[in-house]
Design brief:
Length: about 130
């Protein structure tokens, strides 16, 4: 799991690009993974926005996913994602249709627990962010 806390980004694409670059640097995804995510957004809109403040960008395993991975980017200032406000990006990679289910359970556990999610929004260091999970 990779984590990054930023004060702000210019747009949602910057946050997704940064998360994909971090995953690529770790050998989790190929360079084309970011473009595949943008293509999904172009085709389906902001469906990655799964709740207030939460976005889960991802692409299909055949779109450049090498292995299971997760990059969390938390923004101190929210960014607009096609009309949705987002502060946390959970960029997910899965090498097949099932390997990411454990990661999805961890994300759901944090996002569905108000206390954990509020803690996530308040963390100030990347170490604290890791500890939430």
């Amino acid at each position: 799991m990779l984590v990054k806390i930023l004060d702000k980004v210019d747009n949602y694409m910057d946050a997704i690009k940064m998360s994909c670059d971090m995953l690529e640097a770790e050998g989790v995804v190929e360079n084309r993974y970011y473009d595949a995510i943008l293509n999904k957004i172009e085709e389906f809109g902001p469906y990655f926005c799964i709740a207030d403040d939460i976005c889960m960008p991802h692409a299909r395993p055949e779109d450049g996913a090498i292995e299971e991975g997760l990059c969390i980017i938390k923004l101190n200032e929210p960014v607009d994602f096609m009309g949705k406000t987002v502060r946390v990006f959970f960029t997910l990679s899965a090498k097949d249709n099932e390997s990411h289910l454990g990661l999805m359970r961890k994300i759901a556990d944090v996002c569905m627990n108000k206390d954990k999610f509020n803690n996530l929004l308040k963390v100030e260091t990347e170490q604290q962010l890791m500890e939430v999970f």
